[in-house]
Automatic annotation (TrEMBL):
<dbReference type="InterPro" id="IPR058533">
    <property type="entry name" value="Cation_efflux_TM"/>
</dbReference>
<comment type="similarity">
    <text>Belongs to the TMEM163 family.</text>
</comment>
<keyword id="KW-0862">Zinc</keyword>
<feature type="domain" description="Cation efflux protein transmembrane">
    <location>
        <begin position="24"/>
        <end position="197"/>
    </location>
</feature>
<protein>
    <submittedName>
        <fullName>Co/Zn/Cd cation transporter-like protein</fullName>
    </submittedName>
</protein>
<feature type="transmembrane region" description="Helical">
    <location>
        <begin position="81"/>
        <end position="103"/>
    </location>
</feature>
<dbReference type="Pfam" id="PF01545">
    <property type="entry name" value="Cation_efflux"/>
</dbReference>
<dbReference type="GO" id="GO:0008324">
    <property type="term" value="F:monoatomic cation transmembrane transporter activity"/>
</dbReference>
<dbReference type="GO" id="GO:0016020">
    <property type="term" value="C:membrane"/>
</dbReference>
<dbReference type="InterPro" id="IPR026765">
    <property type="entry name" value="Tmem163"/>
</dbReference>
<keyword id="KW-0472">Membrane</keyword>
<keyword id="KW-0967">Endosome</keyword>
<dbReference type="InterPro" id="IPR027469">
    <property type="entry name" value="Cation_efflux_TMD_sf"/>
</dbReference>
<dbReference type="GO" id="GO:0031410">
    <property type="term" value="C:cytoplasmic vesicle"/>
</dbReference>
<keyword id="KW-1133">Transmembrane helix</keyword>
<keyword id="KW-0770">Synapse</keyword>
<keyword id="KW-0968">Cytoplasmic vesicle</keyword>
């Protein structure tokens, strides 16, 4: 039973990796084409999530080998790279958002931001439910923490959705920049938690960390 449970968790991790790669490619491409900072930042976040998901997949393989849930060197390195990447994304998004607001920049359209975010919300909701079910069945804090991280990704999607719909309805260009700044805030929080996890602290993606 446990073996099949961890196998399912591994499949979900692989699905997360593949989905985030595809989502990142589409979002970065469309964000650059339409000059939509929020969508471009969302796509960059998807690529960072791939690094994190690879670490989770590696962890699940190790757990299946009965090596326990304590993170090894590979997973700690992946978390540190994830943390640095999130911090760099935060700085880039904030700086660009401020410039865009100052220059009264307007994206050509945020239609694709609406489409991508709705698709992402659907897939993240599915992943949250599946990962939570597997984590509870296996009584695995690591898998439940991964489910919580998928929930954090859902917040990224909602931030993109609100800012994209807001611009399409009102035409106020600064809403795209505001959406990007909120994504930057979420990225900073994710980066902080990645470093905390690398130090061996227990986190729940968006909540406080404890030793």
């Amino acid at each position: 039973m446990k073996t099949s449970g961890y196998q399912r968790a591994s499949y979900l991790a692989l699905f997360t990796i593949l989905y985030n790669i595809l989502e990142g490619l589409v979002s970065v491409w469309m964000g650059a084409s339409d000059e939509t900072l929020a969508l471009f930042g969302f796509g960059a976040d998807s690529f960072i999530e791939v690094i994190s998901a690879v670490g989770v997949w590696h962890m699940l393989q190790r757990i299946r080998a009965n090596a326990g849930e304590t993170r090894d060197e590979f997973e700690q390195r992946a978390l540190k790279i994830t943390g640095v990447s999130f911090y760099l994304l935060t700085a880039g998004l904030v700086a660009t958002a401020v410039i865009n607001i100052y220059q009264h920049h307007k994206p050509e359209t945020t239609f694709w931001g609406v489409v991508v975010s709705l698709v992402s919300v659907s897939f993240m909701w599915y992943l949250i439910r599946q990962k939570t079910a597997v984590g509870k069945a296996l009584n695995s804090p690591a898998i439940l923490a991964d489910a919580a991280c998928s929930r954090a990704c859902l917040y990224f999607s909602l931030a993109l959705l609100v800012s994209s719909i807001g611009y399409e309805v009102t035409g106020v260009g600064s809403l795209d920049a505001v959406g990007a700044m909120f994504i930057a805030y979420l990225s900073f929080r994710e980066g902080r938690e990645a470093f905390a996890k690398a130090k061996g602290m227990t986190c729940s993606c968006g909540c406080s960390c404890t030793p």
